[in-house]
Design goal:
mainly beta; five-stranded mixed sheet
């Protein structure tokens, strides 16, 4: 929220392979027994009432998505391009794990080149330097004493959806 350093670290990695975006997010969590799970059902907006991470993506086709995952592995995926479309489904395959001192999310997000089915899938071209995607990785951690909202690119508020403050995502080819 403040642009300062988060109390607990959240790290992520992204990879691209055959029109799939792979995302791994690891959240330091010393109080694993206090993780707040507000819902165990997919597509339930109540997911946001507990601990979760969110991947916000604006692709080169200006499609704008949010994929939020809580510690129980429940997914809330939203198409935000023209408001909030709760009917949209990312088709993401998600796995969560809680270990000693952390919890993590791994996801495979298929990316479609064309928008043949506007209710299913992330649409966009391969992110490149010329046509990058914009993104943010965000975390909400709630406890009885209050909450902490952190993001890869700080937005200055608990609202993560400020596209003007997103980072750029493009492929760097390894040799």
């Amino acid at each position: 929220q403040t642009g300062g350093k988060a109390r607990l670290k959240t790290r992520f990695k992204m990879r691209w392979n055959k029109n799939n975006l792979y995302v791994g997010i690891r959240c330091d969590e010393p109080e694993k027994d206090k993780l707040k799970v507000a819902s165990t059902r997919n597509d339930d907006p109540a997911i946001r009432n507990g601990d979760y991470v969110a991947l916000l993506i604006e692709t080169d086709t200006h499609s704008y998505y949010e994929i939020a995952v809580n510690t129980a592995g429940a997914v809330l995926d939203l198409d935000l391009e023209a408001g909030t479309n709760l009917q949209w489904a990312s088709q993401a395959e998600v796995f969560t794990h809680a270990g000693e001192g952390f919890w993590s999310v791994e996801a495979r997000i298929p990316v479609l080149k064309q928008n043949d089915d506007p209710l299913h899938g992330v649409t966009g071209g391969t992110p490149s330097r010329s046509f990058p995607w914009h993104f943010n990785v965000c975390r909400q951690r709630l406890r009885e004493a209050g909450g902490e909202w952190s993001a890869y690119v700080p937005t200055g508020s608990s609202e993560f959806r400020d596209k003007l403050k997103f980072g750029r995502l493009f492929l760097r080819h390894s040799r």
